Each structure stands twice: as C-alpha cells, then as structure tokens.
# Entry
Amino acid sequence: MIESARDFLLDRWRGWKPSVGIVLGSGIQLSGDDFQEVDRVSCAEIPGLPVPSVEGHGGEWTAFDHSGLPVLLLGGRVHLYEGHSLEALTTGIEILASLGCQKVLLTNAAGGIRPGWQPGEVVMIHGHLDFQVGGLITPGGSGDVFDPIWQQQIQEYRRANGFDGFQEGVYAGLPGPTYETPAEVRMLRKLGADLVGMSTVQEARKAKSLGMDVVAFSLVTNAAAGTGEETELNHDEVLQTGRESRDRVLHAVRTALACCR
Ligand code: HPA
# Structure
C-alpha cells in the first residue's frame, strides 16, 4: 500500500521529491511568497491514505518549493478520536519516508499546562508522554524522539536573528476526543507535562523509527482545563486562537526550514 502511494506520487511529480514533510495543527496553512506551490493532490486520490473528517484539516497534500527546498505539506491529518487506527495515523509519515524524505516538522494546537504560558505562545516540544495507546508505551524506543541537533540549530538561528529562543516543553499526547478534566491536568502536570494535546506523538515516533529527524511545535491555544479562568474549553476557541496566531506558527515553521539547508 505504501509502495502504491509512493509510485503514484513519484509518477505524478516526475522527479520532484520532498526533503521535508510538514504536518500542521488546526487552522494553520503555509502561505507567503516563499512558499511556491508545485502541486496539490487530494488525499482521496492517494492510494491507501485515510481521509480526514475534523474541521480545520484540509484533505490535500501540497508540494511547495520553499526557496529551493522541496517541502510537502501533509494536509488532512487524522486523529485517533476520529476512530482511525494507529496505522492510519502514520500512513502519511510512512509514505514520506518511502519518498526518501529526511525531515519531518509537526505542529499542533495544545492546552498550556506550564504556568505563565499564554494562548499564542509557540513552544518547541523537547519530550513527550504517550497516553494515546493504552497507557504509557515506549515500544523499541529509547532516547528522545525529537532531534536535538535540529532543535539546537533552530534555537541558535532564532538568537542569531535577534529573538529569544523558543520556550521548550514536554507534550502529553492523549487520545481525546474530549478535553481533559481539571483533575487530569493536575495529574499531567505532576508527571512533568507542560502541554497537552491529541496528536503528534504517533507521527513523531513513526518518523523517528523510520530514520527521519523530527521537530515539533505546539501552539498554546488555551490554558489547560482547570488552570485558567475558563470553566470549559471549546473547539471553536481553539480554532480561533489558531487563526489569530497563524503568523507565529508560520514563523516557527520558517525558522525550522531555514535550518534544513
Ligand atoms: N487539551 C487537549 N488538546 C488540545 C487542547 C487542550 O486543552 N487545546 C488544544 N488542543
């Protein structure tokens, strides 16, 4: 199945191949003159690729030329809470690897657990807790999933361009679909989580296991349940903060891509 998808894309692109694969969180798009579209293909056309349903996730893959760097945006991220299997979640990542892609950049929307992080903060994920597939699992995994060298280059690039480094934190991946209870968030904080969300972890693990370098950013869209003033979280607010903070996430994406040359 992966091979049919790969052959379909290679045939379509006639020599174009991505060096970096990108999966973006809710409401975020790649835009700007530095992202020149090369091709756009519907997920439904790609053999074996699951088709998404959640609002805010476009079901297309878009090939871009980013100042000479070939990048592939995997729109149509699917989630466990939509009823997709673990395999379905990571099919896109497997296709990327089979295309010879070396790097994967992931973003997501997350609840902020670390005190002081406001909605709109973009945080580089330096570690994760995996609660998505029947508790805490690390099959065959040792060492961090996120690439320390690429991360260091990103932080150095930021500082060299006059910015503070990105905040860094631990992302707890939960299955969803509901947001956490305040009690769960207190537990997660005690376990060392700074961020909580429902994506990213399986894609990151799969990418690492296939030999690709991975970096991920969370956009804090809300204070995690029970840590802010809101009594209840809602998906529309998450999407709205996502839209309002698009440029900050795009800036993080550009910084990470600048370190891929
Ligand atoms: N919890 C889980 N996932 C999320 C949140 C949250 O608070 N915000 C955005 N995605």
Notes: The pocket of hypoxanthine is lined by residues 109-111, 179-180, 196-198, 221-222, 224, 233, 238 (CB under 6 Å). The first strand starts at residue 20 and ends at 23. DSSP finds seven helices and nine strands in the chain. The first helix runs from residue 2 to 13.
